[in-house]
């Protein structure tokens, strides 16, 4: 699978007269090498050439993990006292590369590293490789979809743990800890993002921070979580009511649910992405809550928890078979609370498949 990805990218490099590509975004390095890590300030990068085997640059301490990930091509390893740019310069000089351009991730490359690359290859012009990389990652293979399905099941499980943990006196952080503990017991070492357990007025902040606030009867409790499994992310949001619910809260929940269901009905190949956002927004606006829906309807999902496509109302691209993304309408009313219902969606030949399947009908947890 990785070999085919690299061959496809190398063909593009030849067509664009590119000397080499310098790839250092975590998700992109993983996509083309199978190696995923958090290098912090250290350099981990992948060099892809039109007519030469690729090369991975990484700290020596990571080399065993690189091999474990299945990488069998060249590696430039370096110790903390060594200058990786000097080692890279020596390696590039030995290749006698052709081409007039150097492909970089313009949206992710630090300025200081861009300066170093310019010194290494002063005769080459920078060109962006961002669109090409995302084009390749946009349509998922059967192998990727299989992993995403399993990651989604674990996200479902995480919500189930959280809902069952609700009881008076427990805090948001208590419940969050139980969720992540049970997921770790299943072998999960990394969450897709910081797990959210938000209750009451806290749930009215779409990306609020879980706290030591206790859960109280009559409040919404919002769960937003996902796991990283074999390099791929999951993402789910569910909202439940604890012990009791007001008419206004019920109306908010029903509106969000209807917005999601109507949007899901449009999820099929050929649908304009912007129409998904417009559909959900119309349902919520018609119910009088338009100003309380402050974000787009969803985002792409894969080796990053947020990637293309961006499901905003101005996106004129069309859905294609193999795309994976979220559908997540929400209403967030200050002093009342918030509701978000989020599912992972795969576009199929027949329409769509929800990878996340935890029940979304209103639950009042006694």
Automatic annotation (TrEMBL):
PROSITE patterns: PROLINE_PEPTIDASE. InterPro entries: Creatin/AminoP/Spt16_N, Creatinase/aminopeptidase-like, Creatinase_N, Pept_M24, Peptidase_M24B, Peptidase_M24B_aminopep-P_CS. Keywords: Hydrolase, Manganese, Metal-binding. Gene3D superfamilies: Creatinase/methionine aminopeptidase superfamily (3.90.230.10), Creatinase/prolidase N-terminal domain (3.40.350.10). Residues 5-139 form the Creatinase N-terminal domain. It holds the Pfam family Peptidase_M24. GO terms for molecular function: hydrolase activity; metal ion binding. Its cofactor is Mn(2+). Residues 148-349 form the Peptidase M24 domain. PANTHER family: AMINOPEPTIDASE, DIPEPTIDASE YKVY-RELATED. Belongs to the peptidase M24B family. This is Xaa-Pro dipeptidase. It comes from Halalkalibacter nanhaiisediminis.
């Amino acid at each position: 699978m990785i070999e085919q990805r690299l061959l496809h990218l190398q063909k593009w490099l030849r067509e664009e007269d590119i000397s080499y590509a310098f790839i250092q975004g975590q998700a992109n390095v993983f996509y083309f090498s199978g190696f995923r890590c958090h290098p912090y300030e250290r350099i981990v990068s992948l060099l892809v050439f039109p007519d030469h085997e690729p090369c991975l640059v990484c700290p020596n301490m990571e080399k065993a993990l690189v091999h474990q990930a299945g990488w069998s091509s060249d590696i430039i390893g370096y110790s903390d006292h060594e200058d990786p740019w000097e080692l890279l310069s020596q390696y590039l000089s030995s290749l006698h590369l052709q081409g007039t351009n150097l492909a970089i991730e313009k949206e992710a490359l630090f300025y200081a590293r861009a300066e170093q690359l310019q010194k290494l290859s002063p005769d080459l012009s920078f060109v962006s490789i961002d669109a090409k990389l995302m084009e390749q990652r946009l349509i998922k293979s059967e192998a990727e979809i299989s992993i995403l399905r399993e990651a989604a099941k674990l996200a479902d499980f995480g919500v189930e743990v959280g809902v069952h943990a609700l009881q008076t006196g427990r805090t948001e952080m208590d419940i969050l800890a139980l969720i992540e503990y049970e997921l770790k017991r299943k072998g999960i070492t990394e969450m897709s993002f910081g797990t959210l357990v938000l209750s009451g007025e806290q749930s009215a902040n779409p990306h609020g921070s879980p706290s030591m606030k206790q859960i109280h009867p009559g409040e919404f409790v919002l769960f937003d979580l996902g796991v990283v499994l074999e390099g791929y992310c999951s993402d789910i949001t569910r909202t439940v009511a604890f012990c009791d619910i007001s008419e206004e809260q019920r109306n908010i929940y029903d509106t969000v649910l209807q917005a999601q269901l109507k949007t899901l009905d449009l999820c099929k190949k050929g649908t304009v992405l912007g129409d998904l956002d417009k559909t959900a927004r119309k349902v919520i606006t018609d119910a009088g809550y338009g100003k309380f829906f402050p974000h787009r309807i969803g985002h792409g999902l894969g080796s990053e928890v947020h990637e293309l496509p961006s499901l905003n109302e101005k996106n004129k691209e069309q859905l294609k078979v193999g795309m994976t993304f979220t559908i997540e309408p929400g209403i967030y009313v200050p002093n009342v609370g918030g509701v978000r219902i989020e599912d992972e969606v795969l576009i199929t030949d027949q329409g769509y498949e929800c990878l996340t399947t935890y029940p979304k009908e209103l639950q009042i947890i006694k």
